[in-house]
Amino acid sequence: MEIPYNNDFILNIAKAESSENILKNGTESSYELEKAAKNFEAVLLNMVLQSMWKTIPKSELFEKDSSTQIYEGLMLSSLAEEMVSNGGLGIANILYQKLSSEKK
């Protein structure tokens, strides 16, 4: 499997590392724990959306260049974050509940 080294990949890695740092260092704030869980779900949803986007047949109407790829990546990332903020798949909630119960 080829690892895509592009803006989306870098953004996903940054979110994942942020979440990992919060969980490793231990957090006193439930806000930070919730943010880490939501970041995890956003990364997961972004990867799913990218895979789904690749299945859509491409039109020859517009040129495909690097700016289009950047726009698509930002769009999918924003869509994933918006989905998570509106409830998402529920993974963040379950993860938050599990981690907060272990913290006690």
Structure, described:
This protein has about 100 residues and is mostly helical. The chain has one domain (about 5-50, about 65-104). Helices cover about 75% and strands about 0% of the residues. It has 4 helices and no strands. It has helices at about 5-25, 30-55, 65-85, 90-104. α2 crosses α3. The longest helix has 25 residues, at about 30-55. The radius of gyration is 16 Å and the shape is elongated. The model has no long low-confidence stretch (mean pLDDT about 80).
The fraction of residues in strands falls at: under 5%
Low-confidence stretches: none
Number of strands: 0
Largest sheet: none
Task: Tell the overall outline.
Answer: elongated
Q: Order of SSEs, N→C?
A: HHHH
Ends apart, CA distance between termini? 40 Å
Structural class: mainly alpha
The helical percent reads: over 70%
- Integer average pLDDT: 80
Radius of gyration: 16 Å
Oligomeric state, counting identical vs distinct chains? single chain
What number of structural domains do the residues give? 1
* Tally of helical segments: 4
